[in-house]
Design brief:
single chain; mainly alpha; MetI-like fold; 10 helices; globular; MetI-like_sf; transport; MetI-like; transmembrane helix; transmembrane
Length: about 190
């Protein structure tokens, strides 16, 4: 919800220098590969003692912000500003307008952002590898790396773990699929 609220504020105030700067600053962060910032990030994370699972979650939130803002702002541009004006005339403040009028309209984009973010976080191998220092806090993808040895690979255990890693993604997508499909069909019909 915070990413969509920030995208709403930026999108509705485009044309002002500050909001344009914030938008382009966030979008420019998408073009920096993780491999470039990996070493300084590891040093900062270890300095702040964030080399654990909560620290990894905070990093995923911060590093996912540019892409989420980009997706939300593109969708919010298609929502007419007449809805904002009608809510303002009815006496709603900015937060009420967003929460009661705009946010329900964002259901398809919320599902899309949730699926993309979940896929990215769930399948990520590099960031947990370099950030998490304690071996007992490994993610499932890091634990799968153990099955591949230097001279042999335990395929039965490896494929069982691959199935376990795939199952939550499929279940999550099945629940969010209806929203994504309705968003695609609604977007095709808009004039």
């Amino acid at each position: 919800m915070t990413n969509s609220f920030m995208a709403f504020a930026i999108t509705r105030n485009r044309g002002r220098k500050l909001y344009d700067f914030i938008y382009y600053f966030l979008i420019s962060a998408m073009f920096i590969p993780f491999n470039i910032i990996m070493l300084p990030l590891v040093k900062q994370v270890s300095f702040f003692h964030m080399d654990n699972v909560p620290g990894l979650i905070i990093l995923y939130i911060v590093m996912g912000l540019p892409m989420n803002i980009f997706l939300y702002s593109g969708y919010i541009k298609s929502i007419p500003t007449a809805l904002d004006e009608a809510a303002t005339i009815d006496g709603a403040n900015t937060f009420q307008m967003f929460y009661k009028v705009i946010f329900p309209t964002l259901k398809p984009m919320n599902a899309t952002v949730a699926i993309l973010t979940f896929l990215w976080c769930w399948n990520d191998f590099t960031m947990p590898l370099v950030i998490i220092s304690d071996q007992k806090n490994q993610t499932l993808q890091l634990a799968q790396y153990v099955f591949k040895g230097e001279f042999a690979t335990d395929y039965s255990l490896a494929f069982a773990s691959y199935l376990l890693a795939l199952l939550p993604i499929v279940i999550f997508y099945l629940f969010a699929q209806k929203q994504v499909i309705s968003g695609v069909t609604n977007g095709a019909v808009k004039a």
